[in-house]
Write a structure and sequence with these properties.
Shape: globular
Radius of gyration: 27 Å
Structural class: alpha+beta
Strand order of the largest sheet: 3-4-5-12-13-14-15-23-24-26
Strand content: 15-25%
Number of helices: 28
Number of strands: 30
Distance between the termini: 38 Å
Length: 934
C-alpha cells in the first residue's frame, strides 16, 4: 500500500484541516475524482509485495517483555484519493489510526491491568517480525543490501541492512514512506518558509515566526553546523555524515519513485505543488542542511531551557516598587522557588549546584521602568499579511517563543530490580510531544552494522532511533529545562543597529526571510507577503529594546546550543550502537554528547541510570542567571568564543546523575537539590508529585510488576493535581467553621465526594463522553482562577500580580489553551499556582511550611478572612454554568465538558481523527523489563 502523508495548515496544532472539501466538492464529484485517481496507485502496491520470511532479528534480551505505543498510527502519508475519502466519508488509510484505540482505552482499562494484558494497550516491541505476521517486504530502489519488512498489526518498518549505507538508505526510504509531507512541512518551518510552502493562514504565519525567531539561520549557518559536527568528532563525526547522506539518498529515492508512480502525498496537489491530472510540478529533494533546520525546530520545542530574563526583571521591579528593594526582592525570591526544599526531586541524594543565586550579584542590567519594547520581527506586510488576524498570530508567536514556560513535557517511572517481582528493573517512560496527525514521531526498528535498536524518532531525523530500546537496554528522556539561555544588554552606539562589542562599535548583522503566498485548494487565505527580519549580535539575536540607567540597549538572547543544532547526532549514534552501550556508565557517556536539555533514563536487566544532558555554560562569578547581564567581558560565559559560540561547560559530574537509585520519577520536575531549572513553579506541589507518591508507595510495598507501574502512570494520567494535592487543604479552611450557606455547602459536598472517589477526570464508562463527578470538576475548574486572584491580588496589588502571572500562569487544566499545541493537548498541570496556594493556605492554617512565601496572602493571614474569601469565590464558581466554564471552540460546543478536555490530534495534513478522552501521559511510551544481558 502507498504510505499516507499529511497536509499542513496551522500553528503546530492549529493547522487547519481542509474543512471546505465537502463544500466545494460535492460527494458525487468526489467519487468521480477518486475513481480517476485510483489507477496510479497500482505501481505503489506492486512495490510492496507480501512475503513469508521475517526480517532477521538481532539478539533480543527482552524476553517478550518490551512494549510501546505511538498514536494515532504509523502511516502518515495519504494520496489525494485517500485524503478525499477521509474528508468525505471518514475512511482511514491502512495503519493511519490503529494505535489510537488501544492508547485511548487505557484511560478506563488500566484498573484491572495484569502483565498478560499489557499488549491490549501497547504493541509488542520485540525485535523482528514473526513469519506469519509479515505484511510486506520491500527492497527499496531494488537494493540488495537492505530490506524493509512491515508487520500486519501496525505497519511499523523493520529495517535490516547488510551494509551501513544500505541500512541508512532504508531508514530514509521508510521515513519518507510514512512521513514525507510532514518532513517537508517542518524543514520549511525550520527555515522560516512555511507560508510560501503551505499557505498564508495566520496560524502558519505564527508558526514560522515562532521558530525562525529562535533560530534565524542562513544557509551558510546550517552548513557550518554540519561541518563543525563532523570536524570535531573524529571517526564518529565522519560516520554521522555518511549516515545522514545515505539517509537522504533513501528519502530522495522515495520522492522520485512516488512522483513517477503518482502515489506521493496528496497534500502536494492540494497546496499547488503538483498537478493531479498532468503530474506537473516538483517535490524538492532533501539536502543535508534540511536536517539541521528540522533539528532546530525539535530543539526549540523540547530541548532549550532558559530565557525569560527580561520578564523576570519586570516582575522583580514590580515587587520592589510595591514593597521596596529589600522586601520586594524577598517576595520575588519566594515566588521564584529557585531551590524549594519541598520540591519533588528526581535524584534523591547529593547536591548539584547550578545557576544558583550569587551572594554578591554583579553585572545585572535591569531595565528602566516602562522602557522595554519587544523587537519587531515582521516588516513590509502586504495583502492578507496585514490583517488583524495575521498580526495577532505574530504577537502570540513572539510570546510563545520568548517564554520558557511552554517547553517542558514527558514523564518517566523507573524502579530498580531489588523492588520488583522479577528482580529485574522495570520502566514505563516516554516523551509528551503533543498530538498530531500524522504524529511528529515515527516508529521503526533498525538492524545493521553498528546499529541495533527499535523505538521512536522525529520524522526527518530518523537515521537513528532517538528514544527506544537496544538489544538489552532501553532509554527515554523528559524535558529538563535547566537554563542554557542568557540575556545580555548590549549598549548601542552610533544608531539603533550598532552596539559596543568589547569596546568597539560594531554593526549588527541583518538576517531576513521574505515570504509570499497565494490561495490554494488547501488554504484559501488571500495572497500576501511579508519579511521577517532579525538583528544578530555576537551575543545572539535582539529580542527587546530598552534603556538601562538612561542608556539605550538591546536585549539579546544567547543560547549554548545556538549554531550547534547538529552536535547531538553523535550521542544518538552512540545510543544505537550495541558495542558502545554496554551498561549504565556507557549510557551516561553517550548522552553527555547530547547538547539539548533533557533528563535521560536507562534500564537493562540489572541496572538503572539517570543523566541530565545539555551544554551548561560556566557563568562569570557574580552573574545571576535569572536577570539580564551587561554584554561586557567581565560578565560573559567563561571561555566563550563568539565566532563558534562555544564556551566552558560544567563537567559531567556537575550534572545531576545517578546509577541504581531505588527508583526514579520525572515529569519535568526539579532534577536535584541546588540545581535551578529555568521554568517557575518547582515548589511543594508539582505534577511530579503524582508520580512520586504512587511509585514511592509501590516501592515500599515491593514486588513491583510492569502492570503495577503502568497502572501507577495511568492513574496519575487521569488525576486532577489540584484536586489531589491542594483541594483538601482549601476545604480544611472552608470547613474550619460550619458552612451554613446552602449553595456553598452543596459545592463543598460535591468536592468532598470527588476527593473521596480519587479526584479523577474520567468517564462514567468507556465511551460515555460524560465525566463521573462532573459537577465537582466544573466547580473546581471555575473556582481555581477565581480563588487564586482573590487570594493573591489584594496583597500583591494588580501590577505585581499581573507581572507574576506573566512569569507563571495561574492554571493549566486540560481544557485550557496552553503549551505548544494550545488546547486539547493532553499535557496538563505542569505550570500553575498550585504550589503558591498550597504554601499560603498551610501558612494560614498554622502548619509547618519549609520555604514559605515571604508573606501570607489569603485573608492577609487571617483564617477567618481567608475562609470568607474562599467561600465567596466558591459560591461564585458554583453558580457558573457549564457553558460559562467551557465556552466552546472550533472543536466543541459550549458546555461540553468532556469535549473541552478531550485530546485531539491536530491535523498537519489531510487526514483527520476522532477525539479521545483526556489522558495526561506520554505520546510515545515504552514498557520494558529485560530478562537477561549480553
Amino acid at each position: 500500500m502507498p504510505r499516507r502523508t499529511a497536509r499542513t495548515r496551522t500553528v503546530l496544532g492549529r493547522m487547519r484541516t481542509p474543512r471546505g472539501f465537502p463544500g466545494f466538492l460535492k460527494t458525487a464529484s468526489i467519487c468521480a475524482l477518486i475513481a480517476g485517481l485510483l489507477s496510479p496507485l497500482a505501481p505503489a502496491a506492486a512495490a510492496e509485495t507480501p512475503a513469508g520470511q521475517a526480517a532477521a532479528a538481532a539478539n533480543d534480551y527482552c524476553g517478550n517483555q518490551c512494549s510501546d505505543i505511538l498514536p494515532p498510527g504509523q502511516n502518515g502519508n495519504a494520496t489525494l484519493a485517500q485524503i478525499l475519502l477521509n474528508q468525505a466519508f471518514g475512511t482511514q488509510p491502512e495503519h493511519a489510526e490503529d494505535q489510537l484505540g488501544p492508547y485511548a482505552n487505557l484511560a478506563k482499562g488500566y484498573t484491572g491491568l495484569t502483565n498478560d494484558k499489557i499488549n491490549n494497550f501497547f504493541n509488542d516491541a520485540s525485535f523482528g517480525v514473526p513469519a506469519d505476521q509479515v505484511a510486506s517486504t520491500v527492497k527499496p530502489a531494488g537494493r540488495g543490501d537492505v530490506t524493509i519488512v512491515r508487520d500486519k498489526k501496525t505497519g511499523v518498518p523493520h529495517i535490516t541492512g547488510t551494509t551501513r549505507y544500505g541500512t541508512e538508505f532504508g531508514a530514509g526510504y521508510a521515513a519518507a514512506q510514512d512521513r514525507l509531507w510532514l518532513m517537508d512541512v517542518f524543514r520549511h518551518v525550520g527555515r522560516g518558509q512555511l507560508t510560501s510552502f503551505a499557505g498564508g493562514a495566520p496560524s502558519n504565519q505564527g508558526l514560522e515566526q515562532q521558530f525562525w525567531r529562535h533560530a534565524p539561520y542562513t544557509e551558510a549557518d546550517l552548513q557550518a553546523q554540519i561541518d563543525n559536527a563532523v570536524a570535531t568528532n573524529g571517526e564518529r563525526g565522519k560516520q554521522a555524515l555518511a549516515d545522514a547522506t545515505a539517509y537522504l539518498d533513501g528519502i530522495n529515492s522515495y520522492i522520485d519513485a512516488s512522483d513517477s508512480g503518482r502515489y506521493f502525498p496528496g497534500e502536494y496537489v492540494l497546496t499547488g505543488h503538483k498537478d493531479s491530472v498532468t503530474n506537473a510540478g516538483k517535490i524538492e529533494h532533501f539536502k543535508i542542511t534540511d536536517l539541521v533546520a528540522l533539528g532546530s525546530v525539535i530543539g526549540a520545542l523540547f530541548g532549550s531551557g532558559g530565557g525569560g530574563e527580561v520578564n523576570n526583571a519586570l516582575s522583580l521591579l514590580a515587587a520592589q516598587e510595591k514593597y521596596g528593594v529589600a522586601e520586594g526582592t524577598k517576595v520575588w525570591e519566594s515566588f521564584r522557588e529557585r531551590n524549594d526544599p519541598e520540591a519533588v526531586l528526581t535524584v534523591h541524594d547529593g547536591s548539584f549546584p547550578y545557576a544558583t543565586k550569587p551572594d554578591d550579584p554583579q553585572g545585572t542590567a535591569l531595565p528602566d521602568a516602562g522602557s522595554v519594547e519587544p523587537e519587531p520581527l515582521v516588516y513590509d506586510r502586504t495583502g492578507s499579511a496585514a490583517t488583524s488576524s495575521a498580526t495577532g498570530a505574530f504577537g502570540q508567536a513572539a510570546k510563545t517563543a520568548l517564554s520558557s514556560a511552554r517547553r517542558g513535557m514527558s514523564n518517566a517511572l523507573v524502579v530498580g530490580g531489588e523492588h520488583t517481582a522479577s528482580g529485574h528493573p522495570v520502566a514505563v517512560f516516554g516523551p509528551q510531544t503533543g498530538y498530531f496527525a500524522p504524529q511528529l514521531l515515527l516508529l521503526q526498528e533498525i538492524q545493521g552494522p553498528g546499529i541495533s535498536a527499535r523505538g521512536a524518532s522525529f520524522a526527518g531525523l530518523s537515521m537513528y532511533v532517538e528514544l527506544g530500546r537496544g538489544q538489552d537496554y532501553a532509554w527515554s528522556a523528559t524535558t529538563s529545562g535547566q537554563d542554557i539561555i542568557d540575556t545580555y544588554a548590549v549598549e548601542l552606539c552610533q544608531d539603533d543597529y550598532h552596539y559596543l562589542y568589547r569596546g568597539t562599535c560594531t554593526p549588527m548583522e541583518k538576517v531576513e526571510q521574505k515570504n509570499a503566498w497565494k490561495p490554494t485548494t488547501a488554504d484559501g487565505t488571500a495572497a500576501g507577503s511579508y519579511t521577517m527580519r532579525v538583528w544578530r549580535t555576537k551575543y545572539g539575536p535582539v529580542e527587546y529594546r530598552a534603556t538601562v540607567g538612561g542608556k539605550k540597549v538591546a536585549y539579546t538572547t544567547l543560547r549554548s546550543s545556538f549554531l550547534h543544532e547538529a552536535d547531538s547526532i553523535i550521542g544518538f549514534q552512540m545510543l544505537n550502537d550495541p558495542e558502545y552501550v554496554q551498561g549504565p556508565e556507557s549510557f551516561q557517556k553517550a548522552v553527555q554528547h547530547i547538547n539539548y536539555t533533557f533528563n535521560w533514563f536507562y534500564a537493562d536487566s540489572e541496572h538503572t541510570a539517570y543523566y541530565n544532558s545539555g551544554d551548561n555554560p560556566v557563568r562569570a562569578n557574580g552573574v545571576d542567571a535569572e536577570f539580564p547581564a551587561w554584554a561586557r567581558p567581565a560578565y560573559e560565559w567563561r571561555g566563550w568564543d563568539p565566532a563558534t559560540n562555544t564556551a566552558d561547560y560544567t563537567p559531567p559530574s556537575a550534572h545531576p546523575n545517578s546509577i541504581d537509585q531505588d527508583y526514579y520519577i520525572s515529569w519535568n520536575n526539579k532534577q536535584a537539590k541546588d540545581y535551578t531549572t529555568a521554568p517557575w513553579g518547582n515548589g511543594s506541589v508539582h505534577r511530579g508529585n503524582l508520580l512520586e507518591d504512587r511509585v514511592k508507595k509501590l516501592v515500599r510495598q515491593g514486588g513491583v510488576t510492569r502492570a503495577a507501574l503502568v497502572k501507577a502512570m495511568a492513574d496519575a494520567a487521569t488525576a486532577d493535581l489540584r484536586a489531589e494535592d491542594v483541594l483538601p487543604k482549601l476545604l480544611k479552611v472552608v470547613n474550619s467553621s460550619p458552612v451554613t450557606d446552602p449553595a456553598a455547602a452543596a459545592a463543598v459536598s460535591k468536592l468532598q465526594a470527588w476527593i473521596a472517589a480519587g479526584g479523577k477526570r474520567t468517564e462514567t464508562s468507556a465511551g460515555s463522553k460524560k465525566y463521573a463527578d462532573a459537577d465537582a470538576i466544573r466547580i473546581l475548574d471555575a473556582w481555581w482562577p477565581l480563588l487564586v486572584k482573590a487570594e493573591f491580588e489584594p496583597g500583591l496589588g494588580s501590577e505585581l500580580y499581573a507581572a507574576m502571572t506573566a512569569n507563571l500562569p495561574v492554571d493549566e487544566s486540560p481544557s485550557a489553551a496552553h503549551g505548544p499545541t494550545g488546547s486539547h493537548a493532553g499535557s496538563s498541570f505542569q505550570y500553575g499556582w498550585w504550589s503558591y496556594v498550597d504554601k499560603d493556605i498551610r501558612g494560614v492554617l498554622g502548619e509547618q511550611v519549609r520555604g514559605p512565601l515571604a508573606r501570607k496572602y489569603c485573608g492577609d493571614g487571617s483564617l477567618g478572612a481567608c475562609r470568607d474569601t474562599l467561600i465567596g469565590t466558591l459560591k461564585e464558581a458554583a453558580g457558573k454554568t457549564a457553558a460559562q466554564v467551557y465556552p466552546g471552540d472550533d472543536q466543541c460546543s459550549a458546555g461540553d465538558q468532556w469535549c473541552a478536555d478531550s485530546v485531539i490530534h491536530r491535523t498537519l495534513g489531510g487526514i483527520k481523527h476522532g477525539k479521545i478522552s483526556w489522558q495526561n501521559r506520554p505520546t510515545y511510551q515504552q514498557v520494558v523489563e529485560f530478562t537477561s544481558h549480553r
